Amino acid sequence: MDPTLRNRTVATLKNEIPNLPRGLRMAAKYVVDHPSDFGLDPIRESAKKIGVSTYTLVRLAERLGFDGYDEMREPFRQALVSAAAEEKPEWIDGLREQGVLGIVQAEASANEMAIVRRTLEGQKAAQMQRIVAMLSEASTVYLTAVRASYALAYYLHYVGRMALPSLQLIPRHMNSAIDELHSAQPGDVVIAITFTPYSRETIEACGFARRKGLKLIMISDSEIVSPDFRADETLIASVLSTYHFGCYAGAMALIDTLIAMLVARGGEAAQTRITSYEDLRKHSQAYWTPQKKP
Q1: Cβ-count burial of 96 within 10 angstroms (0-12 exposed, 13-18 middle, 19+ buried)?
Q2: Residue numbers of the chain with a pLDDT score lower than 50
Q3: What's the pLDDT tens digit per position in 145-199?
Q4: pLDDT score at 81
Q5: What is the pLDDT of residues 252-275, one digit of tens each?
Q6: 3-state secondary structure the chain
């Protein structure tokens, strides 16, 4: 079997998604986002996870030129590599012995470590360097997110602006992100952070930015957030969780890595700004210090 078939199929799906009807679009996005599950699961299980009929998956296979579903699934199945299970730390096993909540803590802890590793392993050096260059060379960099993702954006702005003074967190005050982008110029860059379920405000801001000719960098859990636009660069972070809401440990690790690279790229000027901020906080007594005993 052609070893490149899986990657070529994924690339074709990414290009075709905007042109597919809703059911096929949902199926295509699932295959792109979860290639391992798609390779492992039988057709009924995949259809159930996606929320479509098995016939929809058959139609998708035919749309891509395969003779049937199994032929489309085969390169994904072949690409799966069996790896020996990693030895878990002893303290994880120790937690499992501490009752029901100990088991919950153990599973959550193991998941946190796994998604951080999975997220960081997935980042390509060439792409990260392109993004750092794009951000460093832009006149203005807009950063937007809402709801839970806003915490990530706030941290990236709070620390990142010391290395990247052009960084602006939007929306400010009671405006919308689109209001803030109204005066943006072609060549400016937008960083948008959003994870499933994607926030309407962020998606609309991304679409608006693309129509204005702005460069777009997404930090998300999928390369395919909306069929209406494509980002220049997308950084993927796993947000799989053992509980109802997404786990952002991987996204946070990715953002910390990006900040470290921006600081390094900023050189002496960035270090000077960092020192300036530190001095300002000391002089304004921003940090608590214990009173000396008389």
Answers
A1: middle
A2: 81-85
A3: 999 999 999 999 999 999 999 999 999 877 799 999 999 999 999 999 999 889 9
A4: 47
A5: 999 999 999 999 999 999 999 999
A6: CCCCHHHHHHHHHHHHHHHCCHHHHHHHHHHHHCHHHHHHCCHHHHHHHHCCCHHHHHHHHHHCCCCCHHHHHHHHHHHCCCCCCCCCCHHHHHHHCCHHHHHHHHHHHHHHHHHHHHHHHCCCHHHHHHHHHHHHHCCCEEEECCCHHHHHHHHHHHHHHHHCCCEEEECCCCCCHHHHHCCCCECEEEEEECCCCCCHHHHHHHHHHHHCCCEEEEEECCCCCCCCCCCCEEEECCCCCCCCCCCCHHHHHHHHHHHHHHHHHHHHHHHHHHHHHHHHHHHCCCCCCCCCCC
**Position of tokens 């209001």?**
179
Sort residue 15 into left (φ over 0), alpha (ψ -120 to 50) or beta: alpha
pLDDT at residue 275, as a whole number: 93
